[in-house]
Amino acid sequence: MSDDDDLKTHWDALTTGGPAFIKDSISQFTFKALPLSVCPYNASKCIPFPGVEFGELYGGYCSFKMGADVVAAMGTAAAEIFESTGLASFQDSSSETLGKWMGDFENSLPAFILVAFSSFIIGFIYLVLLRFLIKFCVWFAVLLVFLMLVVGGGLCWIRSKQCSGAGLLETGQQMAVAVAVTAQTTANNAVSGTEAVSEAMTGDGADYRGVQTRTKNGYQCEAWGEGNAASYNSTLYPSSGLTNNYCRNPYPTGSANVAATIWCFTTDTSVTWETCTPVGVITPECAAGYAVTNNEVRLVLEIVGYVLWVIAGIYFLLVCCLVDRIRLAIAVNQVAASFVKDTPRILIMPILQAIIGILWILIWALSASFLLSQVPEDYTPKADFREKNAVLHVSTFAVTPGGIRILRGSLGNCSLRDS
């Protein structure tokens, strides 16, 4: 180590009094300083990274390059990585697959051409029809975006309330029925001036005296004492409130066969009876747990649903505010459509442009193929591969018992001197 280095004292301590393995390691270090013409500083400040060589780049200019040992080590490491990860076999299989694809493409080339031509014609017809149906397409797109936001928010919200074992559509249907029944009951009470009946119930619903007339899936309830419910009447069950076709949970005192909640017989022949939920209860009660077991995920789904609904509301307000601009844009396109109608020859222009583009590509390909075919097979442009001799003179360097001796030399056209 050079005398000007700040760490020379510590270096000398290691080389003289350090462990044997440290001395062996130090004896293997050899560093070569850069020439003064490139690095006009003290020798200790001009040592490049190990494995980096210094050679002539062009016209007497010098540059760094990786040594042969480093390149070989990197190649070996890359090969080991390829073998350990199976990338080599992946490369072989990819090459084989690519070759098979190219063969299939050549065999199916006529079909590809036919499909491309058909796609062009269909796309052209679509663009023409779009001009004439622009009003319907624009308003349909506006409505579709609004529905996507509303339905997307609804699906997220329903998923957050879905019970274990129940389907997503089934849960959505039950919630929709609950919302519709609640809205209908509220509207009827408001119109008739009737005071809302309490929908409270406890436990299995034996004390429920609400006015729910539909099951959880929307089936209409059958009146008690009629049809399938003939054996259930106020005489046999005086304390169960069996009036009209309201959902109830009638059972004798001390009976072991008791429903878990309120229910009723239905007027649908395919469904004899089904359970109900009180009016105003939108989300189902999941006794067996939720389909999404993680509480945080359910909360996130619910919040995302609300956010999408808010965005849908903002989107609706923006559409209402920009309705005049939308109509103006539609009118402009309708004028363009009328121009196309009055000037049908303009429809030929896209077809001519496509044909000209295809012909241009074919002419270019034929010209390139012709030029390449004129090159002799044994032709080699030797003049383009001249070798430039760069003489590399490096002075010797040695390791002394007291440390590493750093020497300078000459490199190509770069002038070097001993330090």
TrEMBL record:
**Pfam families attached here?**
Choline_transpo, Kringle
Q: Output the InterPro entries linked to this UniProt entry.
A: Choline_transptr-like, Kringle, Kringle-like, Kringle_sf, Serine_protease_kringle
Q: How does the protein associate with the membrane?
A: Multi-pass membrane protein
Q: Where in the cell is it found?
A: Cell membrane; Membrane
Spans through the membrane: 109-129, 136-155, 303-326, 347-370
Instruction: Kindly indicate whether the keyword Transmembrane belongs to this entry.
Output: yes
Q: PANTHER family from the entry?
A: KRINGLE DOMAIN-CONTAINING PROTEIN, PLASMINOGEN-RELATED
What's this protein's function?
Answer: Choline transporter.
Q: Which family does it belong to?
A: Belongs to the CTL (choline transporter-like) family.
Q: What is this protein called?
A: Choline transporter-like protein
Gene name in the database record? LPA
